[in-house]
Amino acid sequence: MAAATIGVLALQGDVREHVAALERLGAETLTVRRPVELERCDALVIPGGESTTMVKLAHTFGLFEPIRQRLAAGMPALGTCAGMIMLADRVLGGTAGQETFGGLDVTVRRNAFGRQVDSFEGDLDVTGLADPVHAVFIRAPWIEQAGESVEVLATVEVAGADRIVAVRGCRPRMECALVPYRGAKAAARLRGVPTHIDARQTHGARSSAT
Length: 210
Description:
Helices cover 26% and strands 32% of the residues. It has 210 residues and is of the alpha/beta class.
């Protein structure tokens, strides 16, 4: 197993916190602001922040299409909060014509849990994990609809309805509405982007985008 370089999209948002969480797991990390940095990554984390601002900056720095291409080629990715929106194929409640990187067959509702004052935290049961994960939701989205190829990992009850807040795609791709680095050990236990990846698995995805 070759050590993977995990990129953290560093255009806007909770970049430092995600890098720190990954490094606590022993991962080799790289902040990504330019296409040349993206080319060095085996996987990508898209952090929380503001999704429309991320889109604008991704276009400005020439990253939008390269990221789309790498995701389409199979690059593993983890999106948290705004990153969930960026990995979704469809968005509700966004700006007119809002773009995303896409890659997961889900429909996400932006700011679904309400405004900043509606932020909350609690223990979340996640499929495949024996113990709950402490989760923090800050102006978080939820998933309205998940395609057949998407596995639902966690839900939160809101007004009597179970709202999807964490999923995993058939490719090595995951997104969640919570802010994982704020809960102790949450990032380590959410089975997101692995810290070690077989180099043979990433070679094709990496070279196809160059």
